[in-house]
Write a structure and sequence with these properties.
single chain; 312 residues; mainly beta; Tachylectin-2, Chain A; five-stranded antiparallel beta sheet; four-stranded antiparallel beta sheet; 21 strands; EC 3.2.1.99
């Protein structure tokens, strides 16, 4: 399974999001860390070049980790580019989801608007305000978010800056019971009537070759599908993604193989140049297992009702 990407220099990414600016004829990828890192390329296959950061002077959200923002999500809404991101630290529920906007995706054009909502270490709070993803359905905005703890949730938004509910965390769509599942991304291909919830499951982070996780306990991309963007999402066996079972729910889209270890942090978009569905993600190269994660890009085929990873 060949990866469609060419990297230039020491380019490392986590939780990549991808977009294409038709006016500039350029792809942009956004990544966790350094105020959300920006990479650009003229072609999907690269070479990808680091061009700066969305928030080079850190986020205005006053929480630990505000210079090291996580998990960007990018969409074109209301005539502008909108980015959601998380401010948090590893293992903490002291987290927030923020938003920034840009007319062009380029460095120096982003305006940060600050926090939309947050979570805390409150003992009764069983959710975490990270890993936001937005989808627009018939003019309505739906935000997915969440990681570990009680799982992944969804909430309606009245506009790109404002939740349309006071009943946090909203609708439970996947994970829970401290399952290591996160990064929910709802996607509807133009060729399908189904909505797909992609998410990452398993152990991630820097790899210690002396303490490797057991097979299939490392990061991997799983999926469920539903007739509606709000679920209920089920896997190929018909199991609801919210169920806490001995054999975790979700059908495998992409797992470790060949030189790819622990792929995850995925997002998808319809490439306007090829007209094909594309998934971007991060992974650790097996032949450089102690390195940071690098970029993976593959086409996704939905012809048979469930996503299949392909190259060409």
């Amino acid at each position: 399974m060949t990866i469609l990407a060419a990297l230039t220099g020491d380019i490392y990414v986590r939780d990549p999001a991808i977009a294409y600016n038709q006016d500039l004829g350029k792809y942009s990828i956004f990544s966790t860390r350094e105020g959300v890192k920006i990479f650009t390329a003229d072609e999907l296959s690269g070479p990808w070049i680091r061009t700066g950061s969305v928030m080079p002077n850190c986020s205005k959200i006053e929480l630990e980790g505000n210079c090291n923002c996580w998990a960007p999500d990018v969409a074109y809404l209301d005539g502008q580019w909108v980015m959601y991101y998380a401010v948090s630290s590893v293992g903490s529920q002291n987290s927030a989801v923020g938003v920034a906007t840009s007319p062009s995706l380029q460095e120096g054009t982003w305006t940060e608007h600050g926090m939309i909502f947050n979570s805390s270490e409150d003992a009764e709070l069983n959710w975490n305000a990270i890993d936001a993803n937005i989808i627009e359905v018939n003019g309505n905005l739906i935000m997915s978010f969440g990681s570990y703890w009680g799982g992944m949730f969804q909430m309606p938004m009245s506009d790109i800056y404002t939740l349309n509910t006071l009943r946090l965390p909203g609708n439970h769509v996947a994970g829970g019971n401290d399952r290591p599942a996160e990064g929910g991304f709802v996607y509807k291909p133009q060729s399908s009537d189904w909505y797909y919830l992609f998410f990452s499951d398993g152990s991630t982070g820097n790899v210690d070759p002396t303490e490797m996780p057991e097979p299939l306990e490392e990061y991997k991309v799983l999926v469920g599908r539903a007739e509606n963007a709000t679920g209920p999402f089920v896997d190929k066996l018909g199991r609801a993604l919210t169920k806490d079972l001995r054999y975790p729910t979700g059908s495998v889209v992409l797992a470790s193989h060949d030189n790819v270890f622990a792929p995850g942090g995925q997002s998808l978009f319809l490439d306007p140049i090829s007209g094909r569905d594309v998934m971007v993600y991060h992974y650790v190269p097996v032949d450089n297992i102690t390195s940071d994660a690098v970029l993976g890009i593959n086409y996704i085929d939905f012809t048979h009702g469930w996503p299949e990873v392909v190259h060409a």
